[in-house]
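FW: tagging you since you asked about this chain on Friday. Here's the raw sequence from the shared folder, copied in full. Didn't touch anything.
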Amino acid sequence: MGQTNASAVIIAGGGPVGLIIALMLGRAGIGVTLFDQGDIVHSEPRAATIHPATLDILDDLGVYALVEPQGIVCPIVNYYDGKLLLASFDHALLKGETRHPWVLQCEQDKLSRTLFAMANATSNVTFRTTATVTGCSQSDDAVEVIVDAAEGRQERHQALYLVGADGARSTVRKTIGVEFEGFTYPERFMIIGTPYDFAADGYAYRNYIADPEEWYNLFKISWHGPPGIYRLVVPLRADEPLGDDRALSIAQRKLQRFNPHPRDYEIAFFNSYTVAQRVASTFRKGRILLAGDSAHLNSPIGAMGMNSGIHDAVNLAENLIRVLHGEESDAALDRYVRQRRYVATTHVQTATIANKQHMEQRDPVKRQHYRDEMRRRAEDPVLAKSFLMRTALIDSLREAERIV
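HL: got it, structure written out here
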C-alpha cells in the first residue's frame, strides 16, 4: 500500500459539490486532491433545474456565462391540479433581489463538465478520476484516506481536512458513523424523456401537476438540442416493476395518461429511482466534513437537491479558506454546519415533503385549500414574490447568513 504527500484538503466525489469546492480552494492557493470514480464524466441528465440564488453564485464563480448557452432560460413556472391551471409565476418579480430573475434548465452533467474544465485548469487542484475513497480516519492534526486506485492498487493519502461529497451512499459518512436520519418513500419515481413538444398543448417549460392518483412534474431540458426534450417525472407504484419487458409500455402508458395522444410517444429515455428525505445528524466530525447528497437527500419536487448542495459547497469552501489562511479558527467549520444543516432541515426538507403532499393530496378539503392558496398567491404580486423568494432559495441563503 503506497503513501503519498498530503494536500491540504482531500475531496471524495466529483459532482458539482466537490468540483465547486475544489475550484474555490484551488483559486485560493490551497492544495486539493479530488478522488472520483466516473461521476465527472457521466452522461445522464440527472438534476437539471438551477434556481436564481444558485445562478448568482455560479456567476460569481465565472461559471454562469459558460453554462447559460448550454441550457434553457425559464422565467415561468406553472402549477396545475389535473388539467386545471391554478397559478403561473413569473420570476421577473424577483428583479432587484437577484441578478438572474429566471431559472436555468441545464443538466447536471453539463454543469459538472464545465466545472471540471475550470478546476482542472487550476494549478493547485489534482484530479484522480479512476480512484475511489474507501475509508478514512483522523487524528488531532490530520486525516488519512484510503483509496482504491487503478489495477486494484490501494493507496493512503494524508491531508488536513477531508470533504465527503460522495453522494447518497457516502462512504465517508458511513465510515465516520454519522446517522442519516429520515425516511425513504415506498414508491419509486420514474423519469421519462420525450421529444414531443408539450408547449403545443399549452405547457410552459416548467410545470407541477397535482393529481390524487398520479402526479406529474414536466420540465424541458436542452439535452442534445436544440430543440431539447421534455422530462416527465411520475410516481411508480410497487406493482409496476420496471422489468425489461414492461418498462417501455409503462412509460408509454404514463405519458398517455398524462396527456392522451392518438399516436405513441417517442421515448428517448426512461429510468426510475428511490427517493428519500434524510439529513445527516451532523455535517462535521473533527476534520471530516459532509456536503451535498452526502449530508442531505430530498424529493426532487421543487428542484432543491443540487441547488442546496451547491450552496453547501460555497459555504464550506469559504470557511475552509478562512481557516487554512489563518483568518479564523476551525470553529468557522461549526458555523458551516449550523447554517447549512438549518437550511436542510428547515427549508429543504420541509418544502419538499410539503410539495409531494400537495401533489398527491386525496382529501378533497385539503386539495381545495391547496387550489385556493395557489390562486391567491398568483393573483397578489406581494404573495407571488414571497412565494418565489422561497422556491428560488433566496430566503434560505439570507436566513443562513444570519446564523452565527
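FW: The chain has a mean pLDDT of 94.
HL: agreed, and The chain is about 35% helix and 25% strand.
FW: great, closing this out.
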